[in-house]
Structure of DNA repair protein RadA:
Amino acid sequence: MAKTKVSYFCQSCGFEAPKWLGKCPSCNQWNTFVEEVIEKGNPAVPDWKPKSTSLQRSNKAVPIGQIQFDEEHRVLTPDKEFNRVLGGGIVAGSLVLIGGEPGIGKSTLMLQLALNLPGQKVLYVSGEESDRQIKMRAERLTAPLPPEGGASFISTSASISPSRGEEAAGCYILTETSTQNIFKQIEQLQPDMVVIDSIQTLHSAHIESTPGSVSQVRECTAELLRFAKESGTPVFLIGHITKDGMIAGPKILEHMVDTVLQFEGDRHHVYRILRAVKNRFGSASELGIYEMLGAGLREVSNPSEILLSQRDEALSGITISATLEGMRPMMIETQALVSTSAYGTPQRSATGFDTRRMNMLLAVLEKRCGFKLGAKDVFLNITGGIRVEDPAIDLGLAAAIISSHEDIPIPFKTCFAGELGLSGEIRAVNRIEQRIAEAEKLGFEQIFISKYNLPTGGDKKRIDLTRYQIAVKTVANIEEVFGLLFG
Ligand code: TYD
Ligand code: MG
């Protein structure tokens, strides 16, 4: 019998050590090492075997000018939000990791995609649910929910041909957790796309530790990576997320895959956001918005109109900011509540916004504008359960806080786009024209932006403010904003 070989792995970064360590030398975390049995033997069942032996060929250095370049083959799915997040469709041979909290809708998203890819043979491998459970879910999803404007399916791919195997195109379900058995099925079926739900349930016969452990996750991902690259088949991995929001398993998982997508949102809200965290084939700041309905996920192509609540009267503490997520401008409503603290320590809490950044805004308002916020409870809420990282929301938040503090509503049809600096200055934000245009499109009457967004030198491209119907108010610091707003 082969000797068992054990090794110690850091749960946080995947660092491997021959003996147990209290502190990881790679990521400096304490108490993260766990023992795992690893046995890189030669099991009876075969691994993924490529048809060609191109791997054995050693590569030669070539001048970059001589490298043949052809566009990546991409498959456009009927889901426009998904295409956008991937940077323009699914790239052949790409390995994509989709992370998200339990119950957020990862399986729903991927099954819906698998069911709605005409002309493609999709293999959906589930280690979490039985085939009957999946069928039940598929029944709920049978009527695809096309967005306004209709869906179209275009294949730009040459390497992916729809009729390689014997079986017809469509969605195939496999409930299996052994990678070797999965590869056997793949060889028979010859799918055009593979979905793995989830990577933490898989195990490889090469390694003896339990499914979900660092070495198993790493080995299974490596095997699937090899398969994706050598066969040109796109592979989607669903990954669990730990309590602190990291994708469970080693961080190196994120380094191995081509694209990392995060599916997030508040489980109690209907909106879900698909965010690209890393993308080798496109921008990593793209965002797709979905609505979770009883019959699956529906794309939201006009987010601004949905995120703004319909009100007839102006209320204090509510502002609208023109933010930009990826390439897309979005109007987002924020609400603030400032009230006298009943306890010694004032409470500060923010939903959808970084609490540290909120504290910074409060400090600036206190120090630069003289508002006494130190003994106040402050609550911030970004509506729709969306998380905003765009700093351009600062100005709107500051205005919301003061509006609530003074109990004076912000004038109707007013919006904001500006970053707040530590000395109270309003800093310029990127792509201001796009934000102004979006505000105008949605019927806003005035927008506050930074004075520094207007170019000072005559040589730079000038923003033509006369082009807009909307009144563009340029401000240099926060006092000026409050002067204009509250008099
Ligand atoms: P699921 O895809 O199972 O989440 P994950 O794979 O990320 O754990 O989603 C489960 C949730 O989605 C569950 O709370 C029910 C809800 N849901 C709907 O609201 N509508 C639907 O059509 C489906 C299939 C699920
Ligand atoms: Mg699931």
